[in-house]
Amino acid sequence: ISEGGIITDLGGLTPQYKSNETGEVEEEQQFIKVGTVVEIGHKCEFLKPGDVVFYTEASECMVPFYKMGFVVVAEQRIVAVVNEKLTERKNEFKNGR
């Protein structure tokens, strides 16, 4: 758990549940994903490389770059950002700095 109280890592564990249909323990499909910003586009206003972001699985678009698992997610589709001084960066942007 981070200082802000957000869980950012499950330690490699995948959530599981017992299916009512089969009675078997199955892996829970996760719809929210976690990623680290590697690069930003010129119109990206609030993110920077190194930010940890949460986004929905439906928001990602796979990038076939040497099968490295990169995805593109529009800044507007980011659910949450975990970083330091995001509020200060937002205020600087608003004030035109």
What is the secondary structure topology, with strand pairs?
Blueprint: E1 16-18, E2 25-27, E3 32-36, E4 52-56, E5 61-63, E6 70-72, E7 78-82, H1 86-94
Antiparallel strand pairs: 1-2, 3-4, 4-7, 5-6
Name the overall outline.
elongated
Beta-strand percent range: 25-35%
Low-confidence stretches: none
In terms of structural class, how would the helical and strand content be classed? mainly beta
Number of helices: 1
Give the topology string: H per helix, E per strand.
EEEEEEEH
What profile does the largest beta sheet have?
Answer: 3 strands, antiparallel
Q: How many E strands?
A: 7
Radius of gyration based on Cα positions = 17 Å
Mean pLDDT: 78
Instruction: Give the N-to-C terminal Cα separation.
Output: 33 Å
How would you write the strand order of the largest sheet? Answer: 3-4-7
Helix content: under 10%
Commentary on this structure:
The protein is mainly β and 97 residues long. It has one helix and seven strands. It has one helix at residues 86-94, and strands at residues 16-18, 25-27, 32-36, 52-56, 61-63, 70-72, 78-82. The longest helix has 9 residues, at 86-94.
Looking at this protein, list some descriptive labels.
97 residues; mainly beta; 3-stranded antiparallel β-sheet; two-stranded antiparallel ribbon; 1 helix; 7 strands
Brief sketch in words of this structure:
With 97 residues, the chain is mainly β.
